[in-house]
Amino acid sequence: MILKLLPISLRKYFEMSRRQRKHEIQNTLWYMPLVYVLGSLVLVAITLFLDLKVEIFQYTHTFFQSEAQSTRVLVSTLIGGILTLSAFTLNSVLVVLTTFSGQFSPRMLLNFISDRNTQHALGIFNGSFVYVLAVFLFIANRPESYYTAIPLTTVGLAFFTAMTFIYFINHATTWMQVHNITYSMNTTSKRIVQESLKNELERYRIESPGSLLEEHMENKHTTEAVKSGYLQIIDYRNIIESARKDGIIIQMHAKVGDFILKGNRLFSYWGPSIENIDQMKYCKMIEIGHKETEMQDIKMGMTKLSEIAIKGLGNNDPQTAINTIHQMGELLVSVESYISFTPYLGDQDHHVRVVMESEDFSYYLYRGFGYIRHYAQDNYPIITEIISVLGLVAQNIDESKHDRIWEFACNTVDHISTEFIYDLDRHFLLSRLYTLAFHTNKIKSYYNLEKSLLKIEENQ
User: Fold this and answer.
1) To 10 degrees, the CA torsion angle through 87, 90, 94, 99?
2) Residue 314 CA to chain centroid, in angstroms?
3) What is the pLDDT of residue 408?
4) Burial bucket for residue 405 (CB in 10 Å: 0-12, 13-18, 19+)
5) Separation of alpha carbons 1 and 22, rounded Å
6) 3-state helix, strand, coil in the chain (%, to 5)
7) pLDDT along the chain (460 residues), means of 10
8) At what angle do helices 149-175 and 116-139 cross, to 10 degrees?
9) For a FRET experiment, which of 225, 244, 342, 392 has its CA 20 to 30 Å from that of 409?
10) pLDDT at residue 4, rounded to an integer
């Protein structure tokens, strides 16, 4: 009842799981500044105690002592100065956000806001302002003749705030550079692969499913989604443990990142005794929200990278697209090395308890390069760069994935047979295709593609 009285902006945090709430709060702009404000209040208490109770000025050199009137003038002046720096910083943030929205993608805003350097800089400004404001309120009418801790701390904070302002401007301009943006996003996506997918799922994956309780599949029960939204988090560990205790197998009909409507199939379950299964218990272990999140969804990070490349193509900025393609290749190698693509998750006794929606290597390959390939159209230097990166990827992944990479490359250049292509574009494209064919053991197939491309030259 109390939650219904809260604004929606606050109520949503109480309706989230602990993990999601922690993630959302840490990515908001006010989380880190609030920490600094609380720290500044502690610093206020310490400096006031030293000056008003301990009277530390008695034990310091006269050089460090300041009269009450001078201290009040100093603090009151710095209130306006620090506030001005904070205003300039806010203006810089707005400029950066506006630039990101227009040049890259609205989804990039969260990356800048959630960046720890951005949050620390804003926290320092807010904490310093709160400090000088609180101190001024306490010393405005105090009769003490000298202060030491307050003026020294205030001057130190003012100097530190000025340096932070310079650092923040440098941070904003540096962060906006494409290679830094793509590298940061790639690093974030690899961390998600490592923490969420590898650490949470890999220990439960089973290559051979064994018994799937096929004799009980006739009595399979299906559970529908209780609300519409994106599948954000699946608590695999608790689902597996609960399924083990209930003696059932759960088959997911959607994967993290999918959008589902209320009433759509969410999961099915079967087993020897399913009459008393609490379906809502399992529904609570599956987070559904109004937006996509990156906590368990690696394809969200791939989509962001793809959008940067597509924007670069639309803005006639091929170097941005090329840099993004390079980062995408590295991310694809990380996905392949960290994840085994079996859909079966088992309990401690290696009995299958969860059957996930299948996500093979081709799925991630398409999510990474499919959109870029589509919007590149007849931009053959970009197509050539994609083929080149696929050749690098092929050298670092298991040979069982080589067929998928070669098929993707062949499909990418299929349309070229009906289009005009410059001689040098054809030469470099064939060169990269041969390299890819060599690393994927598809030399024979390469010569068929070469003949197809060379026919264009004869027709021209």
Assistant:
1) 110
2) 24
3) 94
4) buried
5) 23
6) 70, 10, 25
7) 54 63 70 91 92 79 76 84 81 73 68 83 90 86 77 90 89 81 82 74 83 85 92 90 92 91 93 85 89 80 87 87 92 85 87 87 90 88 94 92 93 74 86 94 88 62
8) 160
9) 342
10) 54
56, 150 Cβ separation under 8 angstroms: no
Nearest to 365 by CA among 406, 309, 426: 406
- Which token pair is 130? 């709160």
State the pLDDT at residue 58: 77
Take residue 348 and report the two structure tokens written for it.
């401690």
Nearest to 110 by CA among 162, 210, 181: 181
Beta bridge partners of 355: 251, 344
Give the C-alpha distances (Å, rounded to integers) separating 391 from 66, 237, 417, 431. 69, 37, 21, 11
Alpha-carbon gap, residue 373 to 337, rounded angstroms: 24
Sign of CA dihedral 435, 436, 441, 443: negative
pLDDT at 372: 93
Structure tokens that stand for 55 in this block: 């009277």
Q: What are phi and psi of 259, to 5 degrees?
A: -100, 130
